Amino acid sequence: MTGGYGLRLFAGFAGIVLVMLIVSAVVFFSLFGGYRDDIDRSELRTAGNALSVEIVRILRRAAAYDREELITLIREQAEHAGLLVILTDGDGRVIQGFEPARGLKDGHVGLNYTDLAAKSDTAGWYDAKLHIGDKWRPSLVRVLIPPNAVSRRDSGVLMAVTFGDERRFGSLDELVGRLIVSGLAGLVAAVIIAMVLSRQLMRPLEALTDVVRRFGPDRYDMRAAESGPTQVRELAAAFNAMADRVSDNERAMRGFIADVSHELRTPLTSIRGFVEALRDGTVTDPERQASSLEVVHEETRRMLRMLEQLLDLSRLEAGQSRLQRSRIDLDELFGYIESMFGARATEQGIELRLEIVPGAPTIEADYDRLVQVLNNLLDNALRHTSEGVVELAARAADDGLELRVSDTGEGIAPEDLEHLFDRFWQPESRTGPGAGLGLAISREIVRAHGGRITADSRLNTGTTITVWLPA
Description:
Elements: H1 2-59, H2 67-81, E1 83-88, H3 113-119, E2 126-132, E3 135-144, H4 152-155, E4 157-163, H5 173-214, H6 230-280, H7 286-318, E5 325-327, H8 330-348, E6 350-356, E7 364-366, H9 367-383, E8 388-397, E9 400-407, H10 414-417, H11 438-448, E10 452-458, E11 462-470
Parallel strand pairs: 6-8
Antiparallel strand pairs: 1-4, 2-3, 3-4, 5-7, 8-9, 9-11, 10-11
């Protein structure tokens, strides 16, 4: 697959270069062709002007000029300049001695002398075409009339000049060979550069492909070298980040399985012991039998509660638990919380403070889920506070609602604070029941609402959990 991609990449580079060369050649020939035409016309005009001066000089001598002298002069000048010069009289007949070697049909050209002489300036050159032999040749035409001529038709001549057989008018043949050679040389150089560039690009891609191919169970430590072009480095960095997450998830999954096994082993062992004692008849006292059955019942409820929490947490993490959002009335919410925990706080000798700071915004959230979060936070606060105050406050913060639960309890050590929201984690000083899933569930509920939850704690001073929800 990598080889095929490298071949396509190389072919793409070479194809782009080839297309550029073809387009450049087409544009060059189209532009240079017109440029060469201008140069050829300029050369023809320069040579033709020199000849026309001599012709007019001879024509000025008399009305009846010496044709032999004129023929000899023009032939010498034309051969020296590599031109083909044709002179016609007023009727368009080629003057004797000026018919080209290949000949003009019937010694006559299709040039309209009368129209040119009547409408044109005798000093100007005009584009025309001469049919010489079997080809049409571009040429320049000019009317030459001596100043003392009595009749244009009788005394004037029509002069046409074009390049001889050794040079074609407006031709690019002399450049074609050199352009082809230079184009081929450029194409070869481009192919070599394309090979080098594609190889430099494919080398880190091949290395990355090899790492991806070997990455898997028992090789989660594989990482790609972040080298090569920018896009390849970004791809390698993205893969490494993904590999880190996969490795973390793998470790978390293994830890999760170990934690679940550990948490379930204790109640199952207890249940097994009491059931065996009841089955073997070890416990015969009705009061002890009832006590044993109560323990089995409570441990069973504990396992069911833990399994329900695990299922709830899994659904939240997978995004399968949909929120039933509604407008939250903070007064109603705080009133419910007070009814839930007021009596318990009083029994423990703890002051429960509830405060809604003026200006606290209204939010839309899942009421039951929000109650679940606050229940978890306040339950933890009361369980880990022996005396003092537990406070729940709501206020505006960062264009949202901030709910803060603080206590004056035992606090959490700084090295343990980062694990506070992990599954099954609890501080060593915990008291009371619980599997360590409440805060993990609370974090996922807050995340599902687009919010965040943070913790701050000091040993023997207290803990503050802050929940922020968007307004």
